């Protein structure tokens, strides 16, 4: 991993930005936190929510693969994916039941 002391400004929806950032830093670990996280906003603008949360993630994964990086990726999700689960706590067997575009 390269040592860096600056930030890279880019857009998760722009594949070239994502690839350039990863190429510049060659990270060992990636903490993917780029998302539209406001549930109410996801109802107001579901297309944008899906673009950022899905296409942005796809851009990241594709760039890692394209650059042949051996990075560990932490993908932050949300309990919202479970909707109103019957059991708590949730685990890997808990079925998804998203109730908003954000949860999808």
Structure description:
- The model has no long low-confidence stretch (mean pLDDT 92).
- The chain has a two-stranded parallel ribbon.
- It is 37% helix and 8% strand.
- The protein has 104 residues and is mainly alpha-helical.
Strand content: 5-15%
Helix content range: 25-40%
Q: State Rg.
A: 16 Å
Helix tally equals 3
Q: Strand-and-helix sequence, N→C? A: HEHHE
What's the main sheet like?
Answer: 2 strands, parallel
Given helix and strand content, the structural type is mainly alpha
Low-pLDDT runs: none
The coarse silhouette is globular
* Rounded average pLDDT: 92
How do the strands line up in the largest sheet?
A: 1-2
Distance between the termini: 33 Å
What's the quick description here?
With 104 residues, the protein is mainly alpha-helical. It has helices spanning 15-25, 39-44, 46-66; strands at residues 29-32, 72-75. It contains 3 helices and 2 strands; from the N terminus they run H-E-H-H-E.
What characteristics describe this protein?
104 residues; two-stranded parallel sheet; mainly alpha
Layout of helices and strands, plus pairs?
Blueprint: H1 15-25, E1 29-32, H2 39-44, H3 46-66, E2 72-75
Parallel strand pairs: 1-2
């Amino acid at each position: 991993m390269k040592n860096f002391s600056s930030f890279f400004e880019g857009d998760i929806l722009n594949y070239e930005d994502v690839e350039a950032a990863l190429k510049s830093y060659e990270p060992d670990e990636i903490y993917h936190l780029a998302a539209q996280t406001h549930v109410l906003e996801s109802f107001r603008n579901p297309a944008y929510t899906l673009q950022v949360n899905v296409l942005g993630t796809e851009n990241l994964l594709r760039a890692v693969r394209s650059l042949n990086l051996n990075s560990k990726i932490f993908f932050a999700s949300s309990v919202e994916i479970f909707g109103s689960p019957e059991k708590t706590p949730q685990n890997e067997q808990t079925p998804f039941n998203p109730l908003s575009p954000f949860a999808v």
